[in-house]
Amino acid sequence: MSLKEKLAALKIEAETKLLPAHAVEILHRATNELIASGAQERVLKIGDTAPSFKAFDSDGNLVSSEILLEKGPIVLTFYRGVWCPYCNLDLQALEETRAEFESKGATLIAVSQQTAANSRKSQRTNNLGFPILSDVGGEIADSFKVRWNLPDYLIEVHKELGADLSVFNGENSWTLPMPARYVIGKDGIIAYAEVNADYTTRPEPSEVLPVLETLLVN
Hints:
The protein has 9 helices and 9 strands. With 218 residues, the protein is α/β, with parallel strands linked by helices. α1 (3-18) packs antiparallel against α4. The longest helix is centred in the middle third of the chain and has 19 residues, at 85-103. The chain starts with a helix and ends with a helix. The model has no long low-confidence stretch (mean pLDDT 97).
């Protein structure tokens, strides 16, 4: 089953069986407002220079994008957190494709505002062989222009559903990254960018492979 099919099945189950109707309505409202705001159009795109960044992985090791790029391209995904089932399906799909990324010289990393302890939980639960870097306060997400502020009404629903970001992230900014996938070439230029204001929609990891093939040739 493709990632798209898994996400679609999860959405049907969540919105018809798992979540209360008023929560579904509010989640739809927030997504529609984020789309209407044009935030998705203001993110960094193909051809832009990717911001360099340094962040700690869940074991406390400092990871530098500049050092990673000396070895090869980076496949970068912005991850909302362990509380998000759509995000976890995305990470699992990326893990299934990781060996193919690595065979083309690329390094796969995820970035999340959640605490290191929650990132370790994400890695265990999803059986990940790639790191989740700590993006405290969403600074890296902001540099890629994918960070956004949750409205008050959505904050209340998050708390009601057990996804209190102040607890999961260990800080009170109540910001999140839009789900985003980037490929950064060794020259620091963004070669692939897929960002969606609808958190239930993600690209297939396989979409990245032809981009990495092109980078190998060049």
